[in-house]
Write a structure and sequence with these properties.
Distance between the termini: 61 Å
Number of domains: 2
Bound molecules: zinc ion
Strand order of the largest sheet: 1-2-3
Largest sheet: 3 strands, antiparallel
Length: about 130
C-alpha cells in the first residue's frame, strides 16, 4: 500500500499534482490530480504505476513546442487552451490567442496551420 508521499512522488514524476490527501484504500480507485497543463484528471494508483499520462494532453496531436513555434511565426500569444465536447459528443480543443495587434481570438490548431500555409494573418480582425 502506497503512502501519501509515494503517491505524491509518483504523481510528480508524471507532472501531476495530487489534490487528495489520503490513499483511497485500493489500487484501482481513482484519485484526483491536476496535470502540468491544469487539466483535472482522475488516476488510480495502478494508472500512476503504468505511467498513464493526462488524457487531455495525450490526446493532443500537436505538441506544445509545435504550437509555440506556429504561434511565434504568426506573432500570436497563447492565452488559453480550452477542451470541450461539441454537440456531436466529439472532443475538441480551441486555442485562445492574441494576435500581434492585440485582438483576442479563439481559433484551432487546424486554422493556425492553414493561416501559416496560406500566408494569411490568421486573425479574422486583421487585414490580409
Ligand atoms: Zn493535461
Ligand atoms: Zn488581429
Amino acid at each position: 500500500m502506497p503512502s501519501s508521499s509515494d503517491i505524491e512522488a509518483a504523481a510528480a514524476e508524471l507532472g501531476f499534482t495530487w489534490v487528495g490527501d489520503s490513499y483511497p484504500g485500493k489500487n484501482t480507485i481513482k484519485m484526483d490530480f491536476v496535470c502540468a497543463n491544469g487539466h483535472e484528471i482522475q488516476k488510480s494508483w495502478c494508472d500512476l504505476q503504468a505511467k498513464k499520462k493526462c488524457r487531455f494532453c495525450s490526446r493532443r496531436v500537436t505538441t506544445g513546442a509545435e504550437l509555440d513555434s506556429i504561434l511565434a511565426e504568426l506573432g500570436f500569444a497563447h492565452k488559453e487552451t480550452k477542451h470541450f465536447t461539441d454537440a456531436k459528443g466529439k472532443n475538441r480543443v480551441t486555442l485562445v490567442v492574441e494576435c500581434g495587434a492585440g485582438h483576442p481570438i479563439e481559433t484551432t490548431m487546424v486554422s493556425l496551420k492553414r493561416a501559416l500555409k496560406n500566408g494569411t494573418s490568421g486573425c479574422r480582425h486583421c487585414p490580409k
